[in-house]
Predict the 3D structure of the following.
Amino acid sequence: MRDSQRGFSLIELLIVVVVILVIAAIAIPNFMRSRIAANQASAVQSLRVIGGCEVTYSTTYGTGFSATLTQLGPPPGGGPVSTSAAGLLDDLLAAGVKSGYSFVYTPTNQDSSGKYYGYALQANPTVFGQTGNTYYYTDETHVIRANASTAATSTDSPVAN
């Protein structure tokens, strides 16, 4: 007979499983919070990028602000840039969804020649509480505003820089 046995006992294996579960219970909520924070930071940065692209679009083409986000996006098939596909935004942002946020763009202040001299832009979490906990808003003033409970508007508090 052998005096020593090889392998782990059932008790040892259960202890290891319990330790792993405790570590996971601590780590997963922290991971989710950090993912939400990263999505929110990405949404604020995306609002800044879109605002800069609107200024570039307006000064480059002299037609006021764009009518849609897709006008700021890349031309189809890599063709030449134009007022309908200026090549200023990436595909995702031009489509209106990025990093757990959806972007709702509305042109405003249209003059008689069809030029838009304003816009309203909202960034809303696609699944509130899972992809983000804050709604954002900006317009042609480039002030980013936030609301923690409902879609943000021009009357909400500005985000601290």
Remarks:
- The two ends are 74 Å apart (CA to CA).
- The first strand starts at residue 97 and ends at 98.
- Residues 10-61 form the longest helix (52 residues).
